[in-house]
């Protein structure tokens, strides 16, 4: 707050020594000015406050440190920020499989279908890392399974490729990653078919086919 005035307000003012009326006016004006200063101070951002550094958030993401990511977001990190490869923090968190943090990011404005420089979306990332629960959550939140990456692959196509390279069993035991990828494939296939059916229905409404009639027949 800026310092206002100086000296003793109740003392001599403008040569009117001991004038109560003048003193009251002076006190009133001072009070108004002080109140205005307080309001201005609240409205102006502190120029000495440190700028938020999104680097901390991305460093935490590279270490899969979800707690540090949450802390960075609480401190004001930008939920829509991207790294030099155009990859958003949502891409990283989807790959990690941290659904609560994904919820926070979406609430803070993160784009669910954002694509990095290779065309990957958070759904691609979650599917590629076999995060079954995360894939389900992203789809529930409206992620588009039809988006293709730079190699013309949807998330479903990516899972198909990974499944072809992932053994069903490891050391005579069920391979959990293969199982998750299989479930994700079924999930993506089901949702993709649903989206395609809805699109077909909308196209039918826009281009109705006239039903045949018997008009003119004997």
UniProtKB/TrEMBL annotation:
<dbReference type="InterPro" id="IPR036770">
    <property type="entry name" value="Ankyrin_rpt-contain_sf"/>
</dbReference>
<dbReference type="Pfam" id="PF12796">
    <property type="entry name" value="Ank_2"/>
</dbReference>
<protein>
    <submittedName>
        <fullName>Uncharacterized protein</fullName>
    </submittedName>
</protein>
<feature type="region of interest" description="Disordered">
    <location>
        <begin position="195"/>
        <end position="218"/>
    </location>
</feature>
<keyword id="KW-0677">Repeat</keyword>
<feature type="repeat" description="ANK">
    <location>
        <begin position="85"/>
        <end position="117"/>
    </location>
</feature>
<keyword id="KW-0040">ANK repeat</keyword>
<feature type="repeat" description="ANK">
    <location>
        <begin position="118"/>
        <end position="150"/>
    </location>
</feature>
<dbReference type="InterPro" id="IPR002110">
    <property type="entry name" value="Ankyrin_rpt"/>
</dbReference>
